[in-house]
Amino acid sequence: MNIQTCPAPTRKSRPPAVGHNILYRKAASNPCPGCGKSQWLVGRVVAECAFCETALPLEHGFRFSGLSVG
Ligand SMILES: [Zn+2]
């Protein structure tokens, strides 16, 4: 049996801090990045596309930031 282990996370493995940050904006039209349609099931934290289930975080949604590591 060959077990492969994931390498330990390093700072280099973190995603870059810049780039696109796609959010669901309540006051804007929100074309789905997955299928281009604009029918959303909006929850407390994310909005989910009704067609392809792509989930986007809400612009003013709940964000938990109470824990910090290190
Ligand atoms: Zn979609």
Task: Describe, in short, the structure shown.
With 70 residues, the protein is mostly beta strands. The protein has no helices and three strands.
Write the layout of secondary structure elements.
Blueprint: E1 40-42, E2 46-49, E3 55-57
The structure holds zinc ion.
Would you write up a description of this structure?
By secondary structure, this protein is mainly β. The chain has a domain at 28-64. Helix content is 0%, strand content 14%. It has strands spanning 40-42, 46-49, 55-57. The protein has a three-stranded antiparallel β-sheet with strand order 1-2-3, with no helix packed on it. Strand 2 (46-49) and strand 3 form a beta hairpin. The chain is extended and about 50 Å long. The chain starts with 39 loop residues before the first strand and ends in a 13-residue tail after the last strand. The model has no long low-confidence stretch (mean pLDDT 81). It binds zinc ion.
- The global form is extended
SSE topology string: EEE
Ends apart, CA distance between termini: 35 Å
Compute the number of helices.
0
**Could you tell me which ligands this complex binds, including any ions or cofactors?**
zinc ion
